[in-house]
Amino acid sequence: QVQLMESGGGLVQPGGSLRLSCTGSGNIFSISTGGWYRQAPGKQRELVAQISTRGVTNYAAAAAGRFTISADFAKNTIYLQMNNLKPEDTAVYLCNVGSAWSDRSGNGAWGQGTQVTVSS
Length: 120
Known about the structure:
- The strands form two sheets. Strands 2, 4, 5, 6, 9, 10 and 11 form a seven-stranded mixed β-sheet that branches.
- It contains one helix and eleven strands; from the N terminus they run βββαββββββββ.
- It is mainly β.
């Protein structure tokens, strides 16, 4: 069974930065597309960014230009560097593996989620 463990969430002021990490079991990110999704209170889960097994990246419009997804396949870990954070980025961020490319709501395996709160 796939296991995903996130870390790196927290409280940050608008304009600040956070880096999320997700370590998967085995070499899962070398086998299947990894990604980050988020879910804000009262809203549907949405795609943030994905990275393919070859390192090709894909971003939702809200993340493009501010967020960067990367992977260290040797460490079975993907990252999400988030810069210039805005209050509307506040959400639980979920690590994912196995979603189809550009799948807006995601499927496959999920981590437990890490809270990101952007507030002054």
